[in-house]
């Protein structure tokens, strides 16, 4: 009887009536991928995969992500995937960095099937979590009151005040939102500053025109970056329209206009037009001051700073007549007289700038009326005497001929047409990027005094001639 029972059980097993235990599937974890440089409070995605082999029936697998570093929050650490045959399933988690530091093996991915299969894999790429950058922005204007048509220089400084070792602020942009009645004259909006490292700053400026300013004007700007998200803002205010007597209503002037006494000490009545521009001085980066307006023949003043010096202004005074700072008139037929100054108190010198140039234009109608060949036009500069500067024709159109001149410094100038174009210029040793500091400082805030002579030139010569005449007549009588 016992033998019969064993025989019947063997038959049932053979035909599959009684189930037998199946072998566990073979599980494996794929590569674990993630960003290795993270900013605190930033969310990142971790991806991996699970592969199953020798699958029998429906296999349910729990896949769990473990944070070995203690630097992250994982909202849903365990996920489920199912296999009905051999294959691979992708898995991913979104985690958030909560503290800073570096860990060499930050994550482990483990898998366990409902058939008792299991496996695990630990990530081998080190991950670093840095503090967030801290952005701030400040802005200022070169003047506090404005009149219709006047230009205003709006400068800004963006800083990352985070401590050393924090993350860079990336893709930093500055956006200007001008109020109604204002327009952008120069500069790019939005301005792209790129990356700002911890403890570093980046600056720039726009020139804006008060086309139709209100009595109170707010010039807001905002700063954004990829890291951190969000925006920091600031604004500057300008009162207008201005009623100040020394403020220009000309569109060509940035800081005052015709009819105002110059910082050079130029006579009030001799200034036909005044223009001021400010540019940020960055070492070894070309500084270009662009001017507009029919009253001003100067279009660009440029040079390369030898040091970082912040905002430096260029002042152009277009004159009715020869500058009060010179004691003779320039050679040739004069088109315009002017003073050009860089900075205050003779800031521009061979130790602060290199390669100064001045670009200007002359009306073709003036050349034709005076029968002047444009090749004879020169920029003249006065120090202790007038000297021709190396001047070249750059371009022309239907109305103007455009010129560029190399200058050793800044002082009184004249645009003149000369017959003798071979006049010797100031020697290279003498003119090495000098700006006549003494001339500018001596006349800043003062009026030019006329020199008078108390002597009687030629008196002794006339006396001698008279005595010779008397002697001649006496000898004839004898």
UniProtKB/TrEMBL annotation:
Q: Report the transmembrane regions from the record.
A: none
Quote the biased-composition stretches of kind Gly residues, using this chain's numbering. Answer: 251-264
* A Pfam family per the record: NPCBM_assoc
Q: Where is the composition biased (Acidic residues)?
A: 426-450
Identify the stretch(es) annotated as Disordered.
104-124, 200-266, 425-457
Which segments constitute the Alpha-galactosidase NEW3 domain?
147-210
Q: What is this protein called?
A: PGF-pre-PGF domain-containing protein
């Amino acid at each position: 009887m016992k033998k019969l029972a064993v025989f019947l059980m063997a038959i049932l097993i053979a035909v599959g009536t009684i189930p037998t235990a199946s072998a566990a599937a073979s599980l494996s974890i794929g590569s674990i991928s993630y960003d290795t440089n993270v900013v605190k409070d930033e969310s990142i995605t971790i991806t991996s995969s699970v592969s199953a082999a020798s699958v029998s029936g429906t296999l349910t697998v729990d896949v769990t992500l473990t944070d070995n570093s203690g630097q992250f929050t994982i909202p849903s650490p365990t996920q489920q995937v199912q296999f009905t045959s051999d294959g691979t399933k992708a898995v991913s988690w979104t985690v958030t960095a909560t503290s800073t530091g570096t860990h060499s093996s930050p994550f482990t991915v483990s898998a366990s099937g409902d058939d008792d299969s299991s496996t695990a894999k630990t990530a081998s790429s080190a991950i670093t979590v840095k503090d967030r950058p801290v952005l701030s922005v400040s802005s200022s204007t070169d003047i506090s009151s404005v009149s219709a048509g006047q230009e205003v220089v709006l400068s800004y400084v963006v800083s990352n005040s985070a401590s050393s070792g924090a993350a860079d602020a990336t893709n930093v942009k500055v956006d200007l939102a001008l109020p109604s009645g204002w327009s952008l004259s120069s500069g790019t909006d939005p301005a792209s500053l790129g990356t700002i490292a911890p403890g570093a700053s980046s600056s720039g400026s726009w020139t804006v025109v008060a086309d139709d300013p209100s009595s109170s004007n707010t010039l807001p700007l905002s700063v954004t970056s990829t890291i951190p998200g969000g925006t920091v803002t600031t604004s500057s205010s300008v009162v207008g329209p201005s009623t100040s007597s020394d403020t220009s209503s000309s569109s060509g002037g940035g800081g005052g206009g015709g009819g105002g006494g110059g910082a050079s000490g130029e006579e009030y009545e001799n200034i036909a037009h005044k223009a001021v521009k400010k540019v940020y001085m960055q070492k070894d980066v070309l500084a270009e001051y662009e001017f507009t307006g029919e009253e001003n023949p100067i279009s660009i003043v440029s040079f390369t700073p030898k040091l970082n010096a912040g905002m430096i202004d260029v002042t152009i005074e277009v004159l009715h007549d020869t500058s009060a700072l010179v004691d003779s008139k320039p050679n040739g037929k004069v088109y315009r007289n002017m003073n050009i100054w860089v900075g205050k108190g003779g800031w521009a010198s061979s130790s602060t700038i290199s390669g100064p140039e001045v670009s200007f234009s002359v009306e073709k109608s003036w050349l034709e009326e005076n029968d002047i060949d444009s090749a004879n036009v020169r920029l003249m500069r006065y120090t202790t005497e007038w000297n021709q500067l190396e001047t070249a024709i750059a371009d022309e159109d239907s109305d103007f001929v455009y010129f560029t001149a190399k200058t050793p410094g800044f002082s009184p100038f004249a645009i003149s047409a000369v017959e003798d174009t071979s006049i010797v210029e100031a020697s290279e040793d003498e003119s090495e990027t000098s700006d006549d500091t003494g001339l500018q400082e001596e006349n800043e805030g003062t009026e030019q005094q006329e020199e008078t002579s108390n002597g009687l030139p030629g008196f002794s010569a006339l006396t001698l001639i008279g005595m010779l005449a008397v002697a001649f007549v006496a000898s004839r009588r004898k």
